[in-house]
TrEMBL record:
The chain crosses the membrane at residues 32-55, 92-115, 155-176, 182-202, 242-262. It comes from the Bacteria. Residues 1-20 are annotated as: Disordered. Keywords: Membrane, Transmembrane, Transmembrane helix. The keyword ATP-binding does not apply. This is Succinate dehydrogenase.
Length: 271
């Protein structure tokens, strides 16, 4: 038995008193940097495209409206692009329509548990990978601005439900032709519907949605309907990472397709 510096006995060997001093940032020999590098490139490409799309004016062509510019809520929007034919923001709003609703889908994804892991590692290197030291000397978690905003993820989830509903309505309108008759089904219609399915799957697979459905129940047997909902959401939740990536690129590709059609770059009979 050895003695501690305070004179108290301890069974710990003397050689274990000092923590190993490792100067290397990591002892890993694999390509640990590859995953955060790919994540950085993927998220950065989405951010660059989103910035361009918001200020691009070619966002509507009958019967399609680009997802990044929906809903269109000002009189500056083309008449057919206005959500439910309304323009509650009137003439005073002259900025791109996407800026009006940008905060809801952007806030939902920025505060998403999976995306937090992704951009914390890829952009802030906090940490860049498991068993790799980070360059930050101080850690405050999500207790201060701006990261304390992450705690309102649930409220962004409610906003994301609204946006998913609007995109669903846009996909329904994509079943009409330029004359307003139902029965149109072009490539753009299929793309918008695929995007809507993935957006709903990603939104409902959210951890907050899983908690809302039955997170506080003590007895599933007393709430069979909520238990069924929880089971369904839990299955989606196990694919949350995959759905996050698929929905991110589906909304980007759907948006790009509509803009290319509106610009006349894509022009064929079943566009």
């Amino acid at each position: 038995m050895t003695q501690t510096t305070a004179g108290r006995p301890t069974n710990e060997p003397a050689q274990r008193k000092q923590r190993a001093q490792i100067k290397a940032r990591t002892l890993r020999t694999d390509r640990w940097w590859l995953a955060p590098a790919i994540t950085f490139a993927a998220l950065a490409s989405f951010l660059v495209y989103g910035l361009w799309a918001i200020f691009d004016k070619s966002y509507f062509v009958e019967p399609y409206i680009a997802p990044f510019s929906s809903p269109c809520l000002a009189t500056s929007c083309p008449e057919g692009a206005r959500f439910l034919g309304l323009a509650p923001f009137g003439d005073w709003w002259t900025l791109p329509p996407g800026i009006l609703i940008l905060g809801l889908p952007a806030g939902f994804r920025m505060t998403c548990y999976y995306y937090r892991k992704g951009y914390y590692r890829a952009f802030w290197l906090s940490p860049p990978a498991c068993a790799v030291g980070e360059p930050h000397k101080k850690y405050t978690g999500e207790t201060r601005l701006p990261l304390i905003i992450q705690n309102i993820h649930r409220y962004f989830f409610y906003g994301a439900i609204v946006i998913a509903g609007i995109l669903t309505w846009d996909a329904v309108l994509a079943l009409r032709d330029a004359q307003g008759d139902w029965g149109h089904f072009g490539l753009g219609t299929a793309i918008l519907w695929i995007n809507v399915v993935l957006i709903w799957a990603y939104t409902l697979s959210c951890h907050s949605c899983r908690h809302i459905t039955a997170g506080r129940l003590n007895h599933f047997s007393k709430h069979p309907v909520r238990y069924k909902m929880w089971t369904f959401v839990s299955k989606l939740n196990s694919r949350h990472m995959l759905l996050a990536w698929l929905s991110m690129y589906s909304v980007m590709l759907a948006d790009l397709y509509v803009r290319l059609v509106a610009k006349g770059i894509i022009n064929f009979p079943f566009a």
